[in-house]
């Protein structure tokens, strides 16, 4: 095993980390000290390539070679010792061979924990790319517009996909409209780094995939600037639309790249290839948002933000203790300082029956149109598949109608909670800050 360079000493008595680049046998602390020692060292300076197993040193009387430079060798260091292993799972993005768009899948990783707490993560990709495949990877650290990515991507693929019989990847072909720089074949997997240090991974989302689209501009819009007309067309297509695993599209944020306009045969429109960024509504887990109570049932509360109505608070996520008042058609919460009644068991929340027997003046209601503060617990996407129209049996002879909105599941829903300090109706906590300051 090689010895670390700092263990060598120069003839002057100082530690050194450089050697003679010709023989790689004499060590010096600086090029100047090599020059000072050259009259002595040149006699024994034998090139390393001429070393033989029969002799480890040689004194040559050949003409003195020119003095070689003093360089730092590549020091071989013993890798840190692995003290334990760990496992993790993150969302990765797979580009299937026979598909039109990528999918999010869980990817298992095996971590080697070294001394000092450094973890070396190795994705387990054999089930996806093939058990017999030699896997290669590349790191994408800049976006399509040249901007640095805050969370770089690592793309894994078969290292010999051009010659191992892999089929062409139709997902990549569909995303790039056949304009990819390489003829990608076989399945491809992308993971997202947790930062620019490339030391760990995080869950990837569809928002990490740049949006590339074809946009047509009608002749009626030729009088407008190209970027204005393109932005209008993109807003018509995406605004107020839910994209699977991305969120509710609000509007176009900016255009990153716009290709040259092309007129297709038999079509008077300009067609542009565009890369753009979209403002998307998708609150993070544990994020606190403010909305209004839209309706209440025994199962829970529905909240609206004005532009988004599919926020639900199940009764299990209401403050404890809570109950549903059928007369008011609203939930109410009984604060702890009202538990002192003799009908309640000490240190135990009252039951629903006991709550409904309480004085109405002690209840804090979540009425309709009440402004509330809630915490996001989770969100869920659902892709409604097209199906046959439902006949209206109640009115014979009427044409088939499209199924009611109530029969269709919302494409994007958020589950929230108002169980916690500061959550619930804003009026509940109006004087809290003032009371705390007075105390």
UniProtKB/TrEMBL annotation:
Annotated ranges, domain MYND-type: 12-45
Q: Where is the composition biased (Low complexity)?
A: 50-62
Q: Which compartments is it annotated to reside in? A: Nucleus
Q: Which UniProt keywords apply?
A: DNA-directed RNA polymerase, Metal-binding, Nucleus, Signal, Transcription, Zinc, Zinc-finger
Name the segments for region: Disordered: 50-73, 383-420
Keyword Nucleus among UniProt keywords? yes
Q: Which domain of life is it from?
A: Eukaryota
Residue ranges under compositional bias (Basic and acidic residues)?
A: 383-392
What are the boundaries of the signal sequence?
1-16
Main localization (coarse)? nucleus
Q: Which named protein is this?
A: RNA polymerase III subunit Rpc25
């Amino acid at each position: 095993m090689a010895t670390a360079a700092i263990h060598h000493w120069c003839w002057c008595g100082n530690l050194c980390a450089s050697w003679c680049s010709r023989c790689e046998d004499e060590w010096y602390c600086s090029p100047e000290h090599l020059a000072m020692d050259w009259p002595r060292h040149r006699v024994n300076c034998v090139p390393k390539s001429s070393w033989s197993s029969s002799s480890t040193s040689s004194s040559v009387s050949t003409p003195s070679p020119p003095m070689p430079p003093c360089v730092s060798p590549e020091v071989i260091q013993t890798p840190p010792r692995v003290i334990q292993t760990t496992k993790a799972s993150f969302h990765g993005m797979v580009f299937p061979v026979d598909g039109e768009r990528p999918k999010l899948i869980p990817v298992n990783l095996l971590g080697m924990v070294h001394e000092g707490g450094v973890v070396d993560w190795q994705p387990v990709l054999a089930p996806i790319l093939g058990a017999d495949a030699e896997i290669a990877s590349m790191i994408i650290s800049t976006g399509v517009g040249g901007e640095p990515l805050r969370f770089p991507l690592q793309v894994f693929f078969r290292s010999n996909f051009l010659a191992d019989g892999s089929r062409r990847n139709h997902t990549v072909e569909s995303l790039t409209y056949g304009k990819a720089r390489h003829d990608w074949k076989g399945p491809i997997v992308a993971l997202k780094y947790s930062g620019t240090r490339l030391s760990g991974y995080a869950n990837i989302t569809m928002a990490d995939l740049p949006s590339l689209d074809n946009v047509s501009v009608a002749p009626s819009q030729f009088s407008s600037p190209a970027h204005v007309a393109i932005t209008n067309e993109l807003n018509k297509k995406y605004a107020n639309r839910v994209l699977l695993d991305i969120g509710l599209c609000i509007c176009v944020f900016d255009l990153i790249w716009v290709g040259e306009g092309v007129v297709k045969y038999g079509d008077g429109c300009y067609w542009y290839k565009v890369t753009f960024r979209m403002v998307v509504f998708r609150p993070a887990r544990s994020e606190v948002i403010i909305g209004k109570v839209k309706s209440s049932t025994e199962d829970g509360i529905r909240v609206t933000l004005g532009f988004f109505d599919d926020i639900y608070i199940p009764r299990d996520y209401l403050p404890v203790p809570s109950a549903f008042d059928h007369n008011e058609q609203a939930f109410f919460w009984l604060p702890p300082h009202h538990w002192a009644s003799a009908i309640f068991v000490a240190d135990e929340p009252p039951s629903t029956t006991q709550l409904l027997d309480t004085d109405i003046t002690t209840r804090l209601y979540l009425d309709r149109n009440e402004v509330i503060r809630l915490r996001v617990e989770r969100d869920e996407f659902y892709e409604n598949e097209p199906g046959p129209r439902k006949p209206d049996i109640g009115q014979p002879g009427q044409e088939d109608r499209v199924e009611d909105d109530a029969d269709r599941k919302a494409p994007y829903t958020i589950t929230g909670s108002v169980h916690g300090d500061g959550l619930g109706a804003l009026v509940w906590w109006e004087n809290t800050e003032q009371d705390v300051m007075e105390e």
